[in-house]
Amino acid sequence: MRWILLYLAGMSLAGFLLCGIDKYKAKRGRWRIKERTLLLLAVFGGGWGLWLGMAVFRHKTKHLSFQILAPLTALLWTAAVVCAGYWLL
């Protein structure tokens, strides 16, 4: 269980950092991180970080796909961990 939590923490940190980096690059007119990359990161466990990054950096907040998928993936991963913890104990 510890490895799952460490994995999710790492993915969330990556989601948060990539959201901040993309916002930084957007302000300076530089190349950007693909939206698909950010959303895939959320699907693979970085939803909490991406969701937090959206709020902190005010980034991608008008995109419906991000408004739905970031919180949805965060909640689904949380539910999966809670269920796994329940079944393993």
Please outline what is shown here:
With about 90 residues, the chain is mainly alpha-helical.
Account of the protein in words:
- With 89 residues, the chain is an all-alpha fold.
- The chain is built from 3 helices and no strands.
- It has helices at 2-27, 35-57, 64-88.
- α1 crosses α2 (35-57) and α2 crosses α3.
- The protein starts with a helix and ends with a helix.
Which terms would index this structure?
89 residues; mainly alpha
List the SSEs and their pairings.
Elements: H1 2-27, H2 35-57, H3 64-88
Helix pairs in contact: 1-2, 2-3
Main sheet overview: none
**Average predicted local confidence, pLDDT:** 93
Number of strands: 0
Poorly predicted sequence stretches spanning 5 or more consecutive residues: none
> N- to C-terminal separation?
10 Å
C-alpha Rg (nearest Å): 14 Å
Order of helices and strands: HHH
Strand content: under 5%
The number of helical runs is: 3
User: Structural class, judged by helices and strands?
Assistant: mainly alpha
- Percent of residues in helices: over 70%
Which descriptor suits the 3D outline?
A: elongated
